[in-house]
Design goal:
Layout lengths: L6 H9 L14 H11 L11 E6 L2 H8 L4 H9 L2 E8 L6 H4 L6 H6 L2 H25 L3 E5 L4 H8 L4 E10 L15 H4 L4
Antiparallel strand pairs: 1-2, 2-4, 3-4
Length: 196
């Protein structure tokens, strides 16, 4: 059985999509980021909690501050990407639940009154949203370079607050020269899927 999604779109979003390591200097506009968000905001999260928060790093001054917190192998590409996004989990997402879950507003206090429960839920669900974000970047015809090689405490202190936990840093733009490493192997269907 074939997928409903056009094969060209399948390639764009998955088969041909890669983690970019170099980028052209073509800018990524606020309109493009808005379009990406307006698409991926519909991805599901538990209780519609949508805990992902995004910090766009555009200014040279902010970029310099961010690069100092990146692992050595990630510094050059972060310094030269047209746009960098810090994706974070909002551990106080529950404050929005009465608006986001109007048919069950008591979920805020019933399930998320304790900080550890919020942190666990925010981490998982914001990670789901981060994956949607990466696919959305690809849908916009851009390449994403997601990274977790950084000083998380430093990024949190520099760009966030105690209520937001950094999940990843994503370089965004049109792929540049020699942008791709060779494709790494993937597990087969039989290695992953078990029927019981």
């Amino acid at each position: 059985m074939s997928l409903v999604l056009d094969p060209t779109a399948q390639d764009l979003l998955f088969r041909e999509a890669r983690t970019a390591n170099t980028f052209t200097d073509e800018p990524v506009t606020d309109e493009q980021v808005q379009a990406i968000y307006d698409l991926v905001k519909y991805g599901p999260t538990a209780f519609n909690q949508t805990p992902l928060r995004v910090v766009l790093v555009r200014s040279a001054e902010a970029r310099e501050r961010l690069v100092t917190h990146m692992a050595e192998g990630n510094q050059a590409k972060t310094a030269t990407a047209p746009l960098v996004a810090i994706l974070a989990a909002d551990n106080e997402f529950h404050e929005e639940l009465p608006t986001l879950l109007p048919h069950f507003p008591q979920a805020k206090d019933l399930f998320f009154s304790e900080r550890p429960a919020r942190e666990s839920a925010a981490s998982l669900n914001a990670a789901l949203q981060a994956a949607y974000f990466i696919v959305g970047v690809r849908a916009a015809g851009l390449a994403a370079g997601p990274m977790t090689g950084y000083d998380a405490a430093g990024i949190q202190k520099e760009f966030l607050d105690d209520d937001h936990t950094p999940l990843m840093v994503v370089n965004i733009g049109k792929p540049g020269e020699d942008a791709w490493f060779p494709r790494s192997p993937r597990l087969s269907y039989e290695d992953v899927v078990t029927t019981v």
